[in-house]
Amino acid sequence: MTRLRTTAVHGGRDDLADLGVHALPIDLSTTYPIPDQAEGGHALQHLAEGAAHAASPVYSRLHNPTVARFERALATLEGTSAAVAFGSGMAAVTAVVQAACVLTGKPHVVAVRPIYGGTDHLLSSGLLGVRTTYATADRVADAITPDTGLVVIETPANPNLDLLDIAAIVARAGGVPVMVDNTFATPVLQNPAALGATYVLHSGTKYLGGHGDVLGGVVACAEEHAGPLRQIRIITGAVLHPLGGYLMHRGLATLPLRVEAAQRSAIDLAARLDAHPGTGLVRHPSLPGADPAGLIGTQLRGPGAVLAFTTREDPTAVVRRLELITPAVSLGSVDTLIEHPAALTHRLVPDTAREASGVPTNLLRLSVGLEDVEDIWDDLDRALSGYDRTLSGHCEEDYIKSSSSDFRERAVSH
Q1: Which of the residues 82, 283, 367, 375 could staple to 331 if both were Cys, CB 3.0 to 4.6 A apart?
Q2: Is the separation of the CB atoms in 324 and 368 below 8 Å?
Q3: Which of 116, 207, 246, 387 is the catalytic position?
Q4: Is residue 194 part of a domain?
Q5: Residue 119 belongs to some domain of the structure
Q6: What pLDDT is attached to residue 393?
Q7: Rounded to whole angstroms, how far apart are CA atoms 224 and 81?
Q8: How many CB atoms lie within 10 A of CB 310?
Q9: What is the CATH number of the domain that holds 267?
């Protein structure tokens, strides 16, 4: 069995030598020649019934070789027998809810907040004909009814980095399928299927692609659960474009290196932010008291590269002062991104529910990138300290040197 970095580089590339190529090929065909129409009909039937492959792809909504390679690679990293890719993370979430609840006639979902705001909104909207009960992690079993088809969790949680014990929640679910959004951790740091999760979901737009230039989602699961997901993808047309499949597959090769490097910086920044007078509560699994169940080292192989913190002044004012860090939604890119969840990603979650789940209005979420950690810190320090852009010359240099040195010393002593 190969190790993580080797699997990330070589996964899903087993057919390249036979094709006589080294780089991943991109198959942009929308349709495929079918000299034997009867044979083509059988292939179409197999794919429409949820098969992973058939004698012919027939049509790109049914199957695409480039996307299939990415699916095999991601399944290998997650330790599952299959994976099904979609045109976006939300398309993937929608398909899981449809497969687990709509197709089974069990239209009830139990979810633990906080989760990604888009997922929260989908589940609470009633759009898919399901009703949702939001419960705390320790009350999941109490919320389950005979009509419950799915339990939804995200850990580390978006956006406040709460950690949930996946195996414990699977046990409380009592046989009800559990979907774990693994976007923050990635397969590098966590493999929920090994802990009993039925569906392991990723917004591939984030760390898997890793460069902010591809939109996609993917669900890793056992083959028996993959078939219905493929059927839903075919019927609804929620397919991933081949170029997206190529970009996310290419991204997997450097995924461990990117996650590990960004995580090192996030650990450093979390400690410094925790000592900064401009912040209130700082959330990162590496900080003291953030992992009471001891999940890092057992469930998680590391704390990850996303952190969150509350500000002592209007968070929008802090964001406006930033010069290096990009103010934008999304995460997992090579550059550092910051966003205000209450205003953006979690805007559609009711205020009372958002606050109750540990996402206050003055919380900012920071996705740490691959820049030099000192440059990221200088930008955060200036913004949190109320630095005025009109300062210039020696005054600016003196400010940066003195304040950065002061807060670095506080972080170390803290």
Answers
A1: 367
A2: no
A3: 116
A4: no
A5: no
A6: 42
A7: 9
A8: 16
A9: 3.90.1150.10
- CA-CA distance, 235 to 185, in Å (whole number)? 31
Number of domains the chain is built from: 1
Per-run averaged pLDDT (10 residues), the chain, 414 residues? 92 95 96 96 97 96 98 98 98 98 98 96 95 97 98 97 98 98 98 98 98 98 98 98 98 98 98 97 97 97 98 96 97 98 91 92 97 98 79 42 44 43
Chain-centroid distance of CA 345 in Å reads: 13
User: Is 206 among the residues known to form the active site?
Assistant: yes
CA 282 to chain centre: 21
* 162 carries an active-site annotation: no
Angle between helices 89-97 and 223-236 (to 10 degrees): 110
Is position 401 annotated as part of the catalytic site? no
Is 116 in the active site?
A: yes
239: part of which helix (H) or strand (E)? Answer: none
Residue 268 domain flag:
yes
Which helix or strand (DSSP H or E) is residue 395 part of?
Answer: helix 393-413
Token pair belonging to 189: 């740091």
Of 120, 162, 165, 181, the active-site residue reads 181
Query: Cis omega (within 30 of 0) on the bond before 156?
Result: yes
Per residue in 4-56, pLDDT (tens digit) is 999 999 999 999 999 999 999 999 999 999 999 999 999 999 999 999 999 99
Question: Whole-prediction pTM value?
Answer: 0.92
Take residue 66 and report the two structure tokens written for it: 């480039």
Candidates 13, 113, 206, 382; catalytic one? 206
Tokens 């014990």 found at: 165
Distance CA 210, CA 335 (A): 9
Please report, as a single letter, which amino acid is at residue 346.
H
CB 158 within 8 A of CB 114: yes
Q: Give the Cα separation of 129 and 201 in Å (integer).
A: 21
Which residues are 326's β-sheet partners?
Answer: 337
Domain that holds residue 278: 255-413
Strand partners, 221: 82
- The answer to whether 57 touches 239, Cβ cutoff 8 Å, is no
Instruction: Tell me if 81 sits within 8 A of 223, measured CB to CB.
Output: yes
Report d(CA 3, CA 26) in Å as an integer.
27
Question: What pLDDT shows up at residue 390?
Answer: 43
Q: Is residue 26 part of a domain?
A: no
Q: Which of 5, 27, 32, 61 is catalytic?
A: 61
Torsion of CA 98, 102, 108, 113, to 10 degrees: 10
Lookup: tokens for 299: 């469930």
